Amino acid sequence: MVISIPKGTKDILPSEVYRWHWVEESFRDCCARYGFSEIRTPLFEHTELFKRGVGDTTDIVQKEMYTFELAGRSLTLKPEGTSPVVRAYIENKLYAEPMPAKYYYNIPCFRYEKMQKGRQRQFHQFGIEIFGTENMMADAEVIALAMDYLSGLGIDDLSLRINSIGCPACRTEYKKVLQEYLAPKLDILCDTCKDRFDRNPMRILDCKSPVCKEATRDAPRMIGYLCAECKEAFEDLRDNLTALSIPYTIDTDIVRGLDYYTKTAFEIVSDKIGAQSTVCGGGRYDHLIEEIGGPPTPGVGFGLGIERLLLVLDAAGIRIPKPEPCDVFIAVLGNEPRAQALQIAQSLRSAGYKILTDVMGRTLKAQLKYADRSEASYTVIIGEDELQKGVVSLRNMKQSTQKEIKIDEITAEIR
RNA sequence: GUGGGUAUCGUCAAGUGGUCAAGACCCAGGGUUGUGGCUCCUGUAUACGUGGGUUCGACUCCCACUACCCACCCCA
Q1: What ipTM did this prediction achieve?
Q2: Which nucleotide is nearest to A113 (CA to C1')?
Q3: Which residues pair with A394 in a beta bridge?
Q4: When you count CB atoms within 10 A of the terminal residue's CB, does the N or C end of chain A come out lower?
Q5: 3-class SS at A44?
Q6: How far is the CA of A330 from the C1' of B28 (A)?
Q7: Stretch A388-401: mean pLDDT
Q8: How far is the C-alpha of A131 from the C-alpha of A288, rounded, in Å?
Q9: Other Cβ atoms within 10 Å of A63 Cβ, number
Q10: Which residue is nearest to nucleotide B2 (CA to C1')?
Q11: What is the mean pLDDT of residues A299-328?
Q12: DSSP reduced 3-state for A62
């Protein structure tokens, strides 16, 4: 009986890991250019953190968390990245440092969901957060970083959608208005939406059911009921995006699934990777830090799905440079020259070259074949003849040329 | 939780109710007793998802199950 990988998880194999390295390095560079520093938090946190942060009534907390009990503690594998960063920020009193605080991270996330294209139970995301400012310049910077990063990878066919979901004050007002509008139609809505009516009527707008879509087509939108402050903030955001020359569309249907969002909500979506089209999603959360027990501090950030990003890269046919696996293969013939071959291999490695050598005791023919499969640019051949003459044979694998040179001439020849 | 699709060597992929099964790639070795990529030859492998049933006989027919994929939902 073979033990298989748990459902919803994926191995990242040597043949594809270079793609991950590529997007990861690029993300680090991009964040550095915007003045963000990396923060690393544990794989799991106290369950309570997510209940408070993400929200007790959300799907994530209600049915998707990997929670386990150990030594009387309830712990949970992180289902998202923001709450842990907030926890670390508070716990380490990072609010004593110069504001704003700017962090980025690269994490695995865990949610117990049904598998689908672009959706796994362990998935990975890049994220950034800015704490300490309510100014919409921060929101614009967060979005700018995301767009900048993606276009830097060569992706140019994604669309940015923005919305404002208001603050607790105007949202309460709006919910009333929405409920009044929907009340007469309540009995035609789908079952899940009937449930949502009291708990979170805004989600009804997000329902894909044709009946609900039709019923809500002319429903009032949050955007029309923003309080003065939220309205001004949204206009600021739009001005800032325009100043940054970032095209966007207003999508009044965007409703974030995590409770902590306020005001700005945005998504960057692709129409080429299937139903799970949101590559990057984020927004503002002005009360989260306070709710988790920190000083009242506004924040804004995003999460960017790495698997989905890779799907987009595939769909766009973007070629990711594959690192050269091998510069020089050192082939040995017989036992006598072995010691010298090993020395050559080690000194070339010290000099920074990628060196492969035979560890299977193969024939010269087989060694050369392996060198070829390994895409070695050169093969150094050392046998009895070379040993006696005090030289090595250097074979240029691409040109199929070969000559005898002194050992100390190798580095000059292969550059 | 609800639908739909798929299931043959490591990978891709033929196949018919009746020699338990092509072929290709990959991997390994050889054709040249010290030389790769092309070519030729040879070799390795627990391959018909699992369990039932129909049948003289099933990989091929039926049923169930499981796994994977896709969609709903939700989100990254």
Answers
A1: 0.85
A2: B74
A3: A380, A403
A4: N
A5: strand
A6: 21
A7: 92
A8: 10
A9: 10
A10: A114
A11: 92
A12: helix
Whole-number distance in Å between A2 CA and B45 C1': 17
- CA closest to C1' of B71 belongs to A275
Among A330, A340, A339, A289, smallest CA distance to A99 is for: A289
Percent of chain A predicted with pLDDT > 90:
64
Contact A355, A327 (CB under 8 A): yes
Tell me the range of A20-34, A275-289, A374-388 where mean pLDDT is highest: A20-34
Note the pTM of the prediction, 2 decimals: 0.89
Q: Are A104 and A37 in contact (CB under 8 A)?
A: yes
Fold match between A14-167+227-315 and A328-414? no
The ranges assigned to domains in chain A are: 14-167+227-315, 328-414
What's the Å distance between residue A329 CA and nucleotide B12 C1'?
31
pLDDT of residue A312: 93
Cα–Cα distance between A199 and A170 in angstroms, integer? 17
Tell me the nt nearest to A365, Cα to C1'. Answer: B35
Confidence of residue A208 (pLDDT cuts 50, 70, 90): low
Q: Which nt sits closest to A371, CA to C1'?
A: B36
Tokens of A61: 């907390």
Question: Which nucleotide C1' is nearest A79 CA?
Answer: B76
A242-262: per-residue pLDDT in tens? Answer: 999 999 999 887 877 677 788
Superfamily of domain A328-414: Anticodon-binding domain (3.40.50.800)
Distance A218 CA to B75 C1' (A): 25
- Strand partners for A119: A116
Residues A108-136: what's their mean pLDDT? 93
CA of A324 to C1' of B39 (A): 28
Distance of CA A360 to the CA centre of its chain: 40
pLDDT tens-digit readout, A49-98: 998 888 887 788 888 899 999 999 999 999 999 999 999 999 999 999 99
pLDDT computed for residue A207 by the predictor: 65
CATH topology for A14-167+227-315? BirA Bifunctional Protein; domain 2 (3.30.930)
Six-digit token string for A287: 């009360």
The Cα–Cα gap between A222 and A212 comes to 17
Q: Provide the CA A315 to C1' B76 distance, Å, integer.
A: 17
Q: Which residue has the higher pLDDT, A103 or A194?
A: A103
Å between CA of A250 and C1' of B5: 37
The CA-atom distances, in angstroms, between A17 and each of A24, A206, A370 are 11, 36, 22
Grade residue A33 by pLDDT with cuts at 50, 70 and 90: very high
